[in-house]
Amino acid sequence: MSTYPHPLLAREGWPFIGGSLLAAVVVWVLAGFWWSAPLWIVAVFCIQFFRDPPRAVPAQANAVLAPADGRIVKVERVGDPYTERDTLLVSVFMNVFNVHSNRSPVDGTVEQVDYRPGKFINADLDKASTENERNAMVISLGSERITVVQVAGLIARRILCYVKPGDVLQRGQRYGFIRFGSRVDVYLPLSARPKVAVGDVVYATRTVIAEL
Length: 212
Known about the structure:
Helix content: 10-25%
Distance between the termini: 26 Å
Strand order of the largest sheet: 11-7-8-9-13-5-4-15
Strand content: 35-45%
Number of strands: 16
Low-confidence stretches: none
């Protein structure tokens, strides 16, 4: 498992940020600023996309925290295909302007990590949860289990997950990243009380999405 103090810019983006800045400078020197302007725009986009700010963890012991920044697109009862049980599903859709660092919503032990290849349809659509490339992490809380699924989006081509079965996570701990637009599904016990509704904007770690 990879951990590091939040460097403000996610390490997953360093090659993109460095490459775009270098290209912009080279074109500026060789051809002038106006020719390099599109590359400066790309560099600014990369910097904003890969920002990774630190977040304060709420003290509420029974809180389930948002695993990602974005907009709530689903809060409903569904079956969890990874643990084969009825659950409360809360889905967070991330656009290209959201922070894409993924963080653990609860304290617990990683019980299972299940990567599945798939399509790259719009992550805002319901069928993205079952048809897109995705990576599921089942977290054991003792008597309860929570499943967190990273789902690739229309232009997201790389899901990064840094945990393995047996790893112990703390709420708000960074465990993965998805590049360029995506979605995170959280399957909760039916006893969980949702604290968000469809359309709400949430922030990773900072927003409480449910109470256990």
